[in-house]
Amino acid sequence: MKGFGIIKGLGVTLKHIYDTYAEDIKAGRKRYYNEAGVRQRMTHDTKGIFTVNYPEERLPVAENFRYVPFLVYEEVEGEKVPRCTACGICSKVCPSQCIWITRAEDPETGKPLKTPAEFAIDIDLCMNCGYCAEYCPFDAIKMDHDYELATYERMESNVHHKDRLLKSASYYAGIRPTYYALEQQAKAEAEAKKAARRKPREGQEGRERPDRKERLDKTEE
Ligand code: SF4
Ligand code: SF4
User: Fold this and answer.
1) Among 30, 32, 156, 177, which is most buried by a count of CB atoms within 10 Å?
2) What is the pLDDT of residue 28?
3) What's the confidence (pLDDT) of residue 179?
4) Whose C-alpha lies nearest to ligand 2, atom 7?
5) Ligand 1 pocket: which of 74, 85, 94, 183 to mutate (most atoms <8 Å of CB)?
6) Same domain as 50, residue 77
7) What is the DSSP letter of 125?
């Protein structure tokens, strides 16, 4: 029948309007502007309105959600110590070539240090692939959940430098608790293996090396 599709569509819309008011009356203000309300509207069996009032409300993101990368630092005696050793692997594997690293140098000897003097990522070029985080051997670069990065200027403010990129290990643990726990477990196991390998060598420390004469005497015998 001509026009039946339109009537059917309008019926769906009317049902949503009715369900929205009915649910609002049932749940009251609890449905809006709080996490539980947003989560309830995300479920498959939700009735009525299922949109969120952004930016007052935000959809929670999955743990594996990834936006632009950030650098992880550890807090050591009140100082931010980046995990990054400036090895350069992330910049080599980056398909968009949007990572730039300058290795720090010892001011006295000029020798390279295992830390970056500068680290920059052009987030306009970054395609959020996560390769940098996958390949980093030191768990020093991770993908962030923060997607609200809009600016009024699209040149300098979209190049994130070291100070902006650095975020604490506890922030990382907060956004990716499962991965953080797995990494900590792997690190603890690796440390335990290292310690076990060291033990036999330590056991030999007490034995003194025979002096030269003693060794010569033994050879003559
Ligand atoms: S973030 Fe990781 S891969 Fe990149 S330079 Fe630092 S240690 Fe190397
Ligand atoms: S997420 Fe991908 S594109 Fe972005 S910096 Fe990392 S490797 Fe490069």
Assistant:
1) 32
2) 76
3) 95
4) 94
5) 85
6) no
7) T
| Residues 78 and 167 reside in one and the same domain | yes
Confidence of residue 1 (pLDDT cuts 50, 70, 90): confident
Q: Does 165 sit in the ligand 2 pocket, CB within 6 Å? A: no
- Which residue puts its alpha carbon closest to atom 3 of ligand 2? 126
94 pocket-lining for ligand 2 (C-beta < 6 Å): yes
| Cα 47 → chain centroid | 35
Indicate the number of domains in the chain: 2
Centre of ligand 2 from the C-alpha of residue 96, in Å = 7
Q: Are residues 39 and 142 in the same domain?
A: no
Residues 39 and 78 reside in one and the same domain: no
Q: Give the tens place of pLDDT for each residue, 126-163.
A: 999 999 999 999 999 999 999 999 999 888 899 999 99
Written as one string, the DSSP assignment of 170-209 is HHHHHH-HHHHHHHHHHHHHHHHHHHHHHHHHHHHTTSPP
In this structure, the answer to whether residues 73 and 101 fall within a common structural domain is yes
pLDDT of residue 66: 96
